[in-house]
Design a protein that fits this description.
Helix content is 29%, strand content 20%. The chain is an alpha/beta fold and 252 residues long. It has a seven-stranded mixed beta sheet with strand order 1-2-10-9-6-3-4. The protein has a three-stranded antiparallel beta sheet with strand order 5-8-7. β1 and β2 form a beta hairpin. α2 packs parallel to α4. The protein is globular, with a radius of gyration of 17 Å. It starts with a strand and ends in an 11-residue tail after the last strand. The protein binds 6-phosphogluconic acid (6PG). 6-phosphogluconic acid binds next to β5.
Length: 252
């Protein structure tokens, strides 16, 4: 795997051969981040289809045995406002794929989609995050998360931060409701905001497949898109397979 700092985004692009190698590289980064912190660990998961292979790997003996499950807490960066058992529910997918088999229930922190509406769910999740963090203000020397996983959508959104939506400009709240999605599935969303997502030691994007190449080219060109504005106060890494890699990044 090769790495290259991208001049405009200040993010590091790491290229791997294919989707399987990408999931394995991501699993190595997850376990390395956990190993680097001997205390309570917080990981913010993502939805969509990109992380499913990673989640499957984390439940295999190789990775499962490396993770001190009792001290690792699992959050989610955005949620579709559907019931917890709906196939579209992001945390539901993570639970089915690995969490329910591996993590203590008390360490799984879903966005409460049983709330009256997305705004109320956001308010409740924000207070859950703040009580976990132990303060209502984020301090840069003490990141909220060890690792934040991310994906990018065809319009350049990440989490449920869509281009030109008010949520992308939010700098006070940690979590907000998004009444209408910009892309499928067209269900209301709840999303962490840029400052909450940024408060991490590492932000790791997973991008795989040729259908992602167009949007990744725009992101790496430095276009003003949510996925470009989402950056860690620590390290930001784009883990990309060859099929998704723009022409000028090929051969790395
Ligand atoms: C969601 C996500 C979203 C996702 C991207 C990429 O709830 O849909 O969290 O931000 O990460 O849309 O999705 P894919 O991995 O399915 O391409």
């Amino acid at each position: 795997m090769a790495g290259r700092a991208h001049p405009r985004t200040h993010a590091k692009v790491m290229a791997v051969s294919d989707a399987a190698a990408l999931a394995q590289a991501a699993a190595e980064r997850v376990t390395a981040r956990i190993a680097a912190n001997g205390d309570r660990v917080a990981i913010c998961l993502t939805g969509g289809s990109s992380p499913t292979e990673l989640y499957r790997l984390l439940a295999t003996d190789r990775y499962r045995n490396q993770i001190p499950w009792d001290r690792v807490h699992w959050f989610i960066g955005d949620e579709r406002f559907v019931s917890a058992d709906d196939p579209l529910n992001n945390m539901g997918m993570a639970r089915r794929t690995f969490l329910d088999r591996c993590a203590p229930a008390a360490n799984i922190h879903p966005i409460p989609t049983g709330a009256a509406d997305p705004r109320e769910a956001a308010r409740r999740y924000e207070s859950e995050l703040q009580s976990f963090y132990g303060a209502n203000e984020l301090v840069s020397s003490r990141p909220l998360f060890d690792l934040v996983l991310m994906g990018v959508g065809p319009d350049g959104h990440t989490a449920s931060l869509f281009p030109d939506y008010p949520a992308i400009e939010e700098i006070e709240r940690w979590v907000v409701g998004v009444p209408q999605a910009h892309v499928e599935p067209f269900v209301p969303r709840v999303t962490l905001t840029l400052p909450a997502l940024a408060s991490c030691r590492e932000m790791l994007f997973e991008v795989s497949g040729s259908e992602k190449r167009t949007i990744l080219t725009r992101v790496l060109d430095g276009e003003n898109l949510p996925a470009n504005r989402a950056r860690s106060t620590g390290e930001t890494i784009w883990l990309v397979d060859q099929a998704a890699l723009p022409e000028n990044f090929r051969g790395q």
